């Protein structure tokens, strides 16, 4: 059984050497198109991530501003308001403070991520100066 396999492999090996096979490469245009498609896919992914982060940042910024406005309403305007505040109002203030703190922390993270994504996009465009992203029809 093994002799049949060895004989078949030897036949394939010797047969490929007997035939005059030349190396064939793709055309330069096809290679360039493949490269453009790869670069385009990476840039599209970066652009999608950037747009999603910016949308999240805008929405979160609106929610943090809303929480700040609601918290300011529950504070009151008396000079000794904090001494006479109801326990329920204190509880709401604590909730607002936690929400605002978490929102501001996330906004800082998003600002950093957006800056990094913009840097990566710029680096890609400078490394591949011949690449022209497709224009969107407005």
Descriptive report:
- This protein has 138 residues and is mostly helical.
- The protein is 80% helix and 0% strand.
- It has helices spanning 2-18, 28-75, 81-84, 87-127.
- The radius of gyration is 32 Å and the shape is elongated.
Q: How would you concisely characterize the structure shown here?
A:
This protein has 138 residues and is mostly helical. It has helices at 2-18, 28-75, 81-84, 87-127.
Q: How are the secondary structure elements laid out?
A:
Elements: H1 2-18, H2 28-75, H3 81-84, H4 87-127
Helix pairs in contact: 2-4
Structural class based on helices, strands and sheet pairing = mainly alpha
Residues in β-strands, percent? under 5%
Helix and strand element order: HHHH
Kindly report how far apart the N and C termini lie.
68 Å
Counted beta strands:
0
Question: What count of helical segments does DSSP give?
Answer: 4
Mean pLDDT: 81
The stretches of 5 or more residues where confidence is low (pLDDT under 50) are none
* Backbone shape: elongated
Major beta-sheet overview: none
Radius of gyration: 32 Å
Helix content: over 70%
């Amino acid at each position: 059984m093994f002799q049949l396999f060895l004989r078949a492999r030897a036949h394939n090996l010797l047969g490929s050497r007997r035939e005059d096979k030349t190396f064939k490469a793709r055309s330069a245009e096809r290679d360039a198109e493949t490269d453009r498609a790869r670069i385009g896919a990476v840039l599209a992914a970066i652009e999608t991530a950037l747009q999603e982060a910016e949308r999240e940042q805008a929405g979160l910024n609106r929610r943090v501003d809303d929480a700040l406005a609601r918290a300011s309403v529950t504070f009151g305007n008396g000079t000794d308001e904090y001494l006479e505040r109801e326990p329920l109002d204190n509880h709401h203030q604590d909730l607002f403070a936690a929400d605002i703190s978490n929102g501001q922390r996330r906004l800082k993270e998003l600002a950093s991520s957006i800056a990094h994504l913009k840097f990566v996009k710029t680096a890609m465009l400078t490394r591949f100066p011949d690449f022209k992203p497709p224009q969107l029809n407005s």
